[in-house]
Amino acid sequence: MAGATPHFITFANEKGGTGKSTTAVHSAVALAAAGRRVAALDLDTRQRTLGRYLDNRAATIERTGIDLPMPLHETFDPDGETLDAQIDRLAEGVEILVIDTPGRDDPFARQAMLRADTLVTPINDSFVDLDLIGQVDPETYKIRRPSFYAELVWNSRTQRAKTHGASVDWVVLRNRLQHVEARNMRRVGAALEELSRRVGFRVIPGLGERVIYRELFPKGLTLLDLAQLGEVGIAHIAARQELREMIAGFGIPDGAAPEMEPRTAMAS
């Protein structure tokens, strides 16, 4: 593995409340549980959701003695080393580096987007969130034009192609899918598919709206840990399947969909 370049997965969305950090944490842990060498970097120096989540996880491991999959993780300090230097250091010896960006326009988030091999933009399944990447006609629900964020991503992808000679796989993740308001879901889905053809992203299902995600945060646990703790129910099994399908949808090279069973923790 020495000298190899890891796969960079950057979670980015300028709108908060989309489940971005929760999705990033579950992705990092799921990949670690599948035996991949994973590091995670939190760029949100204000909220530090990913960083605090994984700090809580480390504390739970120490307190209980349970060996849970644990990605190496750090939080970016703008007064410390440069972002590129920290990314390069964390990337040494890992296969995958997960980067969680703030839910706002941020120069470091834009910088991280330029490093992305897979750019994941989680959105809630609503026209409010869809407006971030595309404006919709109020009568026909057809896409009028791409929005500012789609243009930002387009520019980032173009710049990366010029400077690194590499393409970016942009994935729009439909989080918090619900089985109510089915007509609205179809309209949002149709608008996303139309926009994906115009702008060039893939649409995959993400994580559903489940209370369990909020309850897991204080202990830093994920859905993958519940079996070891003896807390798996039917709803949790369904949620684990959602997670499996989401990770498979990322299309990360050199590995099939994770088995979703915890293995030994990564040495940090």
TrEMBL record:
<protein>
    <submittedName>
        <fullName>Division plane positioning ATPase MipZ</fullName>
    </submittedName>
</protein>
<dbReference type="InterPro" id="IPR050678">
    <property type="entry name" value="DNA_Partitioning_ATPase"/>
</dbReference>
<dbReference type="InterPro" id="IPR027417">
    <property type="entry name" value="P-loop_NTPase"/>
</dbReference>
<dbReference type="InterPro" id="IPR015223">
    <property type="entry name" value="MipZ"/>
</dbReference>
<dbReference type="Pfam" id="PF09140">
    <property type="entry name" value="MipZ"/>
</dbReference>
